[in-house]
Amino acid sequence: MRYVGKIAIVTGGGNGIGRATAERLAHEGAAVVVMDLSASDAAAVAGAIVEASGRAEPYAGDATKEDDVAATVAFAVRRFGGVDLLVNNVARATRATFAECAPEDWDLEFDGTLKSAFLFTRAVLGEMARRGHGAIVNVGSVNGLTYLGNPAYSAAKAGLLSLTQAIAVEYGPKGIRANMVSPGTVRTAGKSWTKRLTRDPQIFEKIARWYPIGRVGTPADIAAAVAYLGSDEAGFVNGANLIVDGGLTAGKTVMVDEITLERGMPADFAPAEPKGN
To answer: What does the radius of gyration of the chain's CA atoms come to, in whole angstroms?
Structure first.
């Protein structure tokens, strides 16, 4: 119950990682504003939280529109009394390759991923600074660290890391921490995955072979990391990027297997004979 008495806003809280995060925070005692572009999705998540004896309110709005962002923050303050934690989870990913990406796609993905986080962070900083504390957790991606497709989305996530660090340094003295979680592949019901599953129903099984842990992630995996970074338990963690990817960026097991022919020692490896005294 790390969040008893705390108020959180989760953007893109109607599905996937956002939903899992809203539910996790509420389960730990937070009052949660579930913000989503879809009013019905936001209401469904907030309703499920309330049904489970938690505290939540839905709020429909566009995280790329300054007026909607300001209205969401004002609603949280009016309804619950303030904002202790902001989770910037909204993102857009459309074009898989650079060749497919037109200028309008670039703008759409940067607005949905980076501008939305900028606007929401800017909107809560004054409230948090007045109270002398606050936490911001941005949901990034391993795509922001290395090339894994979706170049516009990846560039926006890389920018999100820089924004996280800037907020951590500038506002740390005011009691506000900013950190980022960078997930690997997470199985959600999003449109992009629905299309890929239609083309290849075994896609997650194929992707899993690249992960040392042997599976792709779940929204609950990421929600647990967000809940840690946003809590007082992480009070000395500021400006960090917590990679939650099952070991994907630690090394490439498929490449190693192809080099060594099998998991474990190289085929030609033999331990040296012990030397006598």
So the answer is: 21
